[in-house]
Design brief:
Blueprint lengths: L1 E5 L4 H10 L3 E5 L10 H8 L7 E6 L4 H11 L3 E4 L5 H10 L4 E8 L2 H9 L6 E6 L25 E4 L8 H7 L4 E4 L4 E3 L2 E2 L1 H12 L3
Helix pairs in contact: 1-2, 1-7
The protein binds the ligand O=C(O)c1ccccc1NCC(=O)[C@H](O)[C@H](O)COP(=O)(O)O.
């Protein structure tokens, strides 16, 4: 299973988290976020990473040329769209960045929203289901109603996000079968500062399933 640890700001934590077992690291390119990083910070954070670790830039309602430039300058392997991007936008972005994984994040409030999520599947490589918060786009620590996701089976791969922690991850995965998981505040000391003990505990818990 893919494991993405999101909201990395410190270069030395990138390497440590990849060594612990993360398959993907997420970098927040949304200027209003307390986890925001510049292109130079992303470059520093990915410089020592093994090739096989996915480097995902998280954007919200950003225009294609800006995403494109950041992806090139930072060496991103994936772009996560965390705003109100429509399927047509995802399609255009995919054509502009054919080598880059396009991930559409959806903040799920109801079954109706979940049905909407499936419409994106043909325009993106991967979906990411996150919890809804009225004021914040992401990194909120709010969990989704996992029971509601039990029948979720889109035609592309998908990540479960939203309030996952080392303490609740096994309960979540006993109810839902995503292709990957995404964690941020659940493995943090404070926004952007990851708690490596919690990251290690997460992989210990995941290892206990095998
Ligand atoms: O994390 C942020 O600060 C953020 C800001 C704006 C848009 C997206 C953001 N995070 C996106 C992520 O992929 C988080 O990992 C996801 O929301 C889960 O966060 P958490 O509930 O804290 O695990």
């Amino acid at each position: 299973m893919r494991v993405k640890i999101c909201g990395i700001t410190q270069p030395q934590q990138s390497v440590a988290i990849a060594t612990l077992g993360a398959t993907a690291l997420g970098f927040i390119c949304v200027p209003t976020s307390p986890r925001y990083v510049t292109t130079a910070q992303i470059r520093a954070a990915v410089a020592q990473l093994p090739e096989n670790i996915d480097r995902i830039g998280v954007f919200a309602n950003t225009d294609i040329s800006k995403i494109n430039q950041t992806a090139i300058d930072s060496g991103l392997t994936g772009v996560q769209l965390h705003g109100d991007e429509l399927p047509e936008f995802c399609d255009q972005l995919r054509q502009a960045l054919p080598q880059v994984e396009i991930i559409k994040a959806l903040r799920i409030r109801s079954l109706e929203h979940l049905e909407k999520a499936a419409h994106y599947a043909q325009y993106v490589d991967t979906l990411l289901l996150d919890a809804y918060h009225p004021q914040q786009l992401g990194g909120t620590g709010q969990t989704l109603d996992w029971q509601m996701l039990q029948q979720f089976s889109p035609s592309c791969s998908w990540f479960l996000a939203g309030g996952l922690t080392p303490d609740n991850i096994l309960t979540a995965l006993s109810q839902v079968k995503p292709d990957g998981i995404d964690l941020s505040s659940g493995v943090e000391i404070k926004p952007g500062d990851k708690d490596l003990d919690k990251v290690a505990l997460l992989f210990e818990k995941l290892g206990s399933r095998e």
